[in-house]
Design goal:
This protein has 280 residues and is of the alpha/beta class. The protein is built from 15 helices and 13 strands. It has three domains: 2-64 and 240-260, NadA-like (Rossmann fold, 3-Layer(aba) Sandwich), CATH 3.40.50.10800; 67-147, NadA-like (Rossmann fold), CATH 3.40.50.10800; 151-229, Rossmann fold (3-Layer(aba) Sandwich), CATH 3.40.50. It has a four-stranded parallel sheet, sandwiched between helices.
Length: 280
């Protein structure tokens, strides 16, 4: 299975293409005992957490997410020590050990519900732009970690504005990991799964899509009758692009590298996902 942001050849090889959480849920429904996660490190960990009975492989073990590396478990512990009353709300895009430090794990839309129900102060990690969006939308006083997604922050408001001028009828879909001034231009703030669902249901024929450029291949393949405009070719995740067709073949031949998450950490992560409404 491949993440939306993988190169087109890898997406075309996959049994399933989706975002990281979609891939983990698809693996749960599959009868396969071996799952190849064509994505980055925490995608493979997420699949392993939700599929403890399956062998989870990753073709490029060096495909690591720079955002999650910006927020260490030690930093999280330090923030919690300074604000012991605060609940920790984690974004679904995080490493297993970060999940285990959280009270809630959710996507940005479910995080809004969680925050609305919390009386305590809250810590949000690891993405500062998603955290800022949640703080601005919910009015909640958040302590926000300082990680960010490099491809998403390369998308500039001026580029989106230029596309809006050129395509006045296009809907503007913006990922919550983008900068605040880009989010301010959005008609809808959606993660990649929500973007696909929205486009499928929308009568619009044109969309400005502010997210990683690898999403373009999936959208054009699934919706050939619609037109998509991406603000920046620079919004590309080189880490996702480390996986290619040859590495997928070698991974299947060797059944390696395998990704394992210690059960103690995995159970803490699943508990936080249940609390965040991501799983039953």
């Amino acid at each position: 299975m491949a993440h939306n942001f993988q190169p087109g050849d890898v997406q075309d090889l996959a049994d399933f293409v989706g975002n990281k959480f979609e891939c983990a849920l698809f693996a749960q429904k599959s009868n396969a005992s071996v799952v190849v996660a064509c994505g980055i490190d925490f995608m493979a960990e997420l699949i392993a957490i939700l599929n403890p009975d399956k062998k989870v492989l990753i073709p490029s073990a060096e495909a690591r997410c720079p955002m999650v590396a910006m927020v260490s478990v030690e930093q999280i512990a330090g923030i919690k020590e300074r604000s012991p009353e605060a609940k920790v709300v984690g974004y679904i895009k995080a490493r297993a050990e970060q999940y285990a430090a959280c009270d809630y794990i959710c996507n940005h839309s479910k995080a809004l519900r969680v925050l609305s129900e919390l009386n305590e102060k809250a810590i949000f990690l690891p993405d500062q732009y998603v955290g800022s969006y949640l703080r601005n939308t919910s009015g909640k006083d958040l302590i926000i970690a300082e990680g960010y997604c490099p491809p998403h922050v390369r998308i500039l408001a001026s580029e989106v504005s230029r596309l809006k001028e050129a395509h006045a009828n296009a809907e503007v879909l913006v990922h919550p990991q983008c900068r605040g001034d880009v989010i301010a231009l959005a008609d809808h703030v959606l993660d990649t799964q929500q973007m696909v669902e929205h486009i499928r249901a929308s009568p619009s024929e044109e969309f400005i899509v502010a997210t990683e450029i690898g999403m373009k291949h999936r959208l054009e393949r699934e919706f050939p009758e619609k037109r998509f405009y991406f603000p920046s070719e620079r919004a590309s995740c080189s880490n996702h692009k480390l996986t290619d067709a040859a590495k997928v073949l070698w991974c299947l031949e060797d059944l390696a590298p395998e990704v394992r998450v210690p059960e103690e950490i995995a159970e803490k992560a699943r508990r936080a996902m249940r609390a965040g409404g991501m799983i039953d």
